[in-house]
Amino acid sequence: MNTTPRTTRNPRRAFTLIESVIAIAVSAIILSGLSAAILVASRAIPTPSEIGTTDQQVIDTLNRFRSELRLASKIQMKATAAGVQFTLTINAPSVDNAPTTVVYRYKSADGTLDRKQDSETERVFLSGLSDVDANVASEDGRARTVTIRFKAEGTIQNSFEFIATLPNNPELQ
Predict the structure, then answer these.
(1) Mean pLDDT over residues 41-64, rounded?
(2) Structural domain boundaries in the chain
(3) Disulfide engineering: 100 pairs with which of 51, 54, 73, 90, CB 3.0-4.6 Å?
(4) Burial of residue 152, with CB atoms counted within 10 A of its CB: 0-12 exposed, 13-18 middle, 19 or more buried
(5) What is the pTM of this model?
(6) Using CA atoms, how far apart are residues 123 and 107, in angstroms rounded to an integer?
């Protein structure tokens, strides 16, 4: 009689080749779907070069207007169906000590914002503007704040709101 013990063979618990190939294929499909979603999402975020064109031009123009408003000693605003016009008198130091007159004019017919200083020719600063609403808050004939809301075509932001507090409280004509 043979007294050697019988060894039972335990089947190995492992993945078969087919299971491994299927897992890799499913993972590849999921990863390609995720990468496509990330690519689409990354294109939705504006790059600095896209913002740097029209949006930056609007922001630069508003900053220039704000600085000139703050230097103004007199402000005159005219709002008509044809548009809005701001005439600023700035008593800045100059050679002849004459005040500088700066005119910003929004023309609703063509949607442009023009700027003219003294005897210079009028120059278009912005175009594609619409729905312009301008307001000057005043107290005792002195301007306190200027608020302008408008839409600008070709910009990412589309709608802009401009509020300038006037520390010198210029005379409102």
Answers:
(1) 76
(2) 13-45, 50-172
(3) 90
(4) buried
(5) 0.67
(6) 12
Residue identified by tokens 């200027």 is: 146
Helix (H), strand (E), coil (C) string for the chain: CCCCCCCCCCCCCCCCHHHHHHHHHHHHHHHHHHHHHHHHHHHHCCCHHHHCCHHHHHHHHHHHHHHHHHHEEEEEEEEECCEEEEEEEECCCCCCCCCEEEEEEEECCCCEEEEEECCCCCEEEECCEEEEEEEEEEECCEEEEEEEEEEECCCCCCEEEEEEECCCCCEEC
What are 123's strand-pairing partners? 115
Q: Is the pLDDT higher at 97 or at 160?
A: 160
Q: What are phi and psi of 54, to 5 degrees?
A: -70, -40
Segment 33-55 mean pLDDT: 74
Amino acid 51: pLDDT: 57
Q: Give 4's pLDDT tier (boundaries 50, 70, 90).
A: low
Cα 40 to chain centroid distance, Å, stands at 21
Residue 55 is predicted with a pLDDT of: 83
Residue closest to 148 by CA, chosen among 105, 95, 91: 105
